[in-house]
Amino acid sequence: MNRLNRTKIEEALQDCLNHIARDTYPTEWKPTDNVIRCCGLDSQHGIELACDLESRLGIEIPLKENPLVLDDDGEDKKRARTFGEVVDYLTALAS
């Protein structure tokens, strides 16, 4: 089985975001970049992103989780994930 490493996950995420964001896609990602703000996306784009990432990476993203949005400590507060947080999230799912 081909294990996913962080580099492969980053590349897949960049490809998926490029496909979704098109003209608003940044040329270079920093781990602290807010994915939604940098690409002009909204949380609904998370559904498209999740489907694309599942297909490319061969992982399953739970239906109730949005790769672009993070629950903050279970208090129903939500905020956009940074690029690094999305990679961390996907890496955890892949392991």
> Which descriptor suits the 3D outline?
globular
Strand order of the largest sheet: 1-2
* Structure summary, number of beta strands: 2
Secondary-structure element string: HHHEEH
Mean pLDDT across residues:
87
Write a brief structural summary.
This protein is mainly alpha-helical and 95 residues long.
Can you give a write-up of this model?
- This protein is mostly helical and 95 residues long.
- Helices cover 48% and strands 8% of the residues.
- It is built from 4 helices and 2 strands; from the N terminus they run αααββα.
- It has a two-stranded antiparallel ribbon.
- Helix 1 packs across helix 3 (45-57) and helix 1 packs across helix 4.
- The longest helix is centred in the N-terminal third of the chain and has 16 residues, at 6-21.
- It is globular.
- The model has no long low-confidence stretch (mean pLDDT 87).
